[in-house]
Write a structure and sequence with these properties.
By secondary structure, the protein is an alpha+beta fold. 21% of the residues lie in helices and 33% in strands. The longest helix has 12 residues. The radius of gyration is 25 Å and the shape is elongated. The termini are far apart.
């Protein structure tokens, strides 16, 4: 998997320097502007992104790590995979990620990776809140949006012909003689 450079990831400017996180934590509510929403629409399979808001808190953890925990709220439009009509939807999705300077694998523990927050290695001294918001939105999208009542009704004529009487082809040849 190739990772995009921070400059090419939408919302890359939503980063916070670790030195700017006060002892009591940093609480942020942020909405994507028109240009940021347009970047996201180009990066994801979206017809429109009317609203994207994130509310999150960054707190320092004992041992030198940071926790980014919050929720996104988005109003967007995807394209129906059947009819190609617009499918509006609202997404409310939580996220929680811990950032550490060094991340080690658990020693002999049978702990599921699905338990607890995601853990990432901190690259530099910036907490990439915007990248996490973008990835949370991307992961919450319906991969096959379908407008209510849209049905895929396709008939394969060749297959239907095969299902008919196998002797019907011979009958057609006999009629030509």
């Amino acid at each position: 998997m190739t990772r995009q450079t921070s400059a090419s990831v939408p919302l890359a400017s939503w980063s916070h320097a670790t030195v700017d996180v006060p002892d009591q934590g940093l609480e942020v509510t942020r909405s994507a502007n028109d240009a940021e929403r347009a970047d996201i629409v180009r990066a994801l399979p979206l017809a429109a992104l009317d609203k994207l808001q994130a509310h999150y808190r960054i707190t320092a953890l004992a041992g030198g790590g940071w926790r980014l925990k919050g929720q996104i709220s988005a109003s967007l439009v995807q394209t129906c995979v059947v009819s190609l009509e617009p499918v509006p939807s609202v997404i409310e999705e939580p996220f929680e990620v811990e950032f550490w300077r060094e991340v080690s694998e658990p020693d002999g523990e049978d702990k599921s990776i699905l338990e607890g927050p995601d853990v990432e290695t901190l690259a530099g001294d910036e907490i990439p809140a915007g990248r996490i918001v973008f990835e949370t939105l991307a992961g919450a999208l319906d991969p096959y949006p379908r407008k209510e009542g849209a049905a895929f009704d396709w008939n394969d004529r060749a297959r239907d012909a095969e299902k008919s009487n196998p002797f019907s082809v011979l009958m057609q040849l006999k009629d030509k003689e």
